[in-house]
Amino acid sequence: MSETEQDKTNQNQEAMPVDAAAGDAAKAEVSDTALSEGRANGDGSSVPGAAATSDDSGKADLGSGNGLANDSGSGADRGPANDAGDNTGNDSASDSKGSTDSGNDGETGDTDFEPLTNTYEELRHTEDSEELSAAARKPLPPKSDQAAFSRATALLEAVAGNQHTPLQDRIFLAETMPFPNILVKLSEDGNDDVRKAVAANTADKNWLVGRLTKDKVVEVREAALRNPQTSWKMRLEGAQNPDTTADTLDFLSRLGVESEPDAPSILSAMVRRAVALNPNCSQATLTRLAEDASTDVQHAAANRLR
Question: Is this prediction's pTM over 0.90?
Answer without folding.
Answer: no
